[in-house]
Amino acid sequence: FLFDNFVKKRGMKILAEPWCASILWGFTCYVWMAIIAASTIAWKEARLDESFSIRDSYWFSYISTTTVGLGDYYLDPDGVIG
């Protein structure tokens, strides 16, 4: 509701359309998870001297973002504390 009012007042009515809003929010979610994945790779390499594949880091970011937390990938407590 707030987003729809915001875009309509600014003349961006196309963004209030359901199909466009779905694409916009889906893209935003994908970019956010890609940022988390890239940060996880950098953190693992800098802090723990371990490599982490792009595929695994994206899976980690997806599971962390959706709060499912399966436990198959997690941040090592030694690297977080020390």
In short:
This protein has helices at residues 2-9, 18-48, 54-65, 77-81. Helix 2 (18-48) packs across helix 3 (54-65).
* Radius of gyration using CA atoms only: 18 Å
Count of beta strands = 0
Task: Look at the helices and sheets and give the structural class.
Answer: mainly alpha
Report the total helices: 4
- What fraction, in percent, of the residue positions are helical? 55-70%
Strand content: under 5%
C-alpha geometry: elongated
Head-to-tail CA distance between termini? 45 Å
Main sheet properties: none
Mean model confidence by pLDDT = 79
User: What series of H and E elements makes up the topology?
Assistant: HHHH
Runs in which pLDDT lies below 50 for 5 or more consecutive residues are none
Keywords:
82 residues, mainly alpha, 4 helices, 0% strand, elongated
Describe the structure.
With 82 residues, the chain is mostly helical. Helix content is 68%, strand content 0%. The chain has four helices and no strands. Helix 2 crosses helix 3. The longest helix is centred in the middle third of the chain and has 31 residues. It is elongated and about 50 Å long. It starts with a helix and ends with a helix. 7% of the residues are buried. The model has no long low-confidence stretch (mean pLDDT 79).
Mind sketching the topology for me?
Layout (H helix, E strand, L loop, with lengths): L1 H8 L8 H31 L5 H12 L11 H5 L1
